[in-house]
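call fold(seq) -> C-alpha cells
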Amino acid sequence: MRGGIYLEADRRQETLRTNLWFVPTLEVVGAIVLFAITCALDRAAYDGAFRIPSWVIGGTPDAARQVLTAVAAAIITVVGVVFSITIVALTMASTQFGPRMMRNFIRDRGTQVTLGTFVATFVYAVAVLVSIGRSFVPHISTTVSIASMVVDLAVLIYFINHIAVQIQLPNVIADIAREVKTAVDTHRAPDPGVPACGPTTEELLELMADSGGEVRTTTSGYLQYIRYDRLVRLARAENAVIHLPNRPGHFLTEGQVMATVWPAEAAERIAEDFTRGHVTGSTRTLVQDISFGIDQIVEIALRALSAATNDTFTALTCIDWLGDCLSKIATDWDPTPVLRCQDGYIRVIAAQVSYERLVQRAFEKIRQAAVGDPAVMIRELDALAQILDRVEDPQRRQVVLDQAAMIERQVAQSVSEDADREDVLRRCEAFHDQLART
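ret:
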C-alpha cells in the first residue's frame, strides 16, 4: 500500500470533499477578498488617484443601491432554486440508488462550486451595497457585481445540465467504478523492502493467542482509516507487535477488541496512544475500504432486481462494471498483510480483504437475487469469463470457476423454460471452452 503520508492526505481530502460547506466557504472568502480589492480601487478613484475607465458603470448612490438590491434579491432567489434542485437530486439518490449513494452526490464538485458561486456573489453584492455612502459610489465594485451576474447565469446553465447528466444511473455506476480503481491504486505499491528479521507472522500470531494483551475501542462506528505508519512507530517504540483483526469497513462497538499486542505488558502503554492510529465514523469510505465500492454497485444491482423495480438492464450494467473492476486487479492485487519497521522486524499484522472475497461480494448476492433470470446469469458468466482471461494465479482461477459452477447449478434449478435454460447452458459451455484454451 502507499505510504502513510499519502493515505493521510487522501483521508483528509475525502473528509473535506464529502460536505456542502467547504468549497462555498472558500468562494465566500474569495468574494470578500475581491470586495476589499475593488473597494480600495473605488476609494482611490474617489480620491482622484486615477480616472475610472469608460466601461465602468456610473450613476448616483440611489441608482447603485437599486442595482445592487436587485442583484442580491435575484441571487438569493436562485440560491433557493439551486438548493431545491440539490435536495431533489439527493432524494432521488436515496430512494432509487440507496442511501449510501448520497455520499457520491454530496461530494460532487460541480454542485459544491455552483452553490459557492451564488452564495459568494450574494455576499459580494451585499458588501458593496453597505459600502455606498452619501457621495461615495463604488462604481468598479458595482460593475463587478453586474458582471458576476453573467457568470452566475452561465454557472446555472452548467448546473442544470450537470444534474441532468449526473442522476443518470449508468453515469452513477461508472463514477463508483472509477473511484474503486482509484482506491485500488493506493494499495498497489508495496512498502519498501527491508531484510526480514525476527519471528514469522505465524509464530507471532501463536504468541498473541497464548499471551497477547488486548486493546479495546473507546467509541462505536465504522473503521474508516488506519494510520499504519503511526502504529509501526508506536510498536517499535515499545518493541512490540500489533495485530489488527479488523480492517477498514468493519463496524466496531465500544469495548470491542481492536488490536492484540505482544508482549502483553506493552498493551497498556500502546492503548494510551492507540486512538491516534485509527479513525472511526458513522459511514464507510473508499480511502482504504475497497470492498465498499463493490458493495455500492452491488446494492444498485439488488435494487434493480427487486420486485418493486424489476430493472434488469441496470443490473446488467452493474455486472459489466464489476467485471471491469475485478479484471483490472486480477493479476496484481496484493495488499500488504504485514508491516515492518526499518530494522526489519514485523510491527503490525493487518487484516486485508482478499481477491477471493472481492469476487464473492461482487457476484454472489446478485446471483442469489437473480433466481430464474437468464439474462443476468448470462451476463455474470460473461463477466467471469472476462476475469478468467486475466487471472493467472491458480487459486484465483478456482474462485472464478466456483462462481461459474454455482450459476450453472442455479440454472438447472430455477429456469423452467427449456429455451432459456439452453441459452444459459450454451454460455456455460463457452466458458468451459475458454477455460480449456487458457
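Residues 190-314+330-353 form a domain with the Aldehyde Oxidoreductase; domain 3 fold (CATH 3.90.1170.30).
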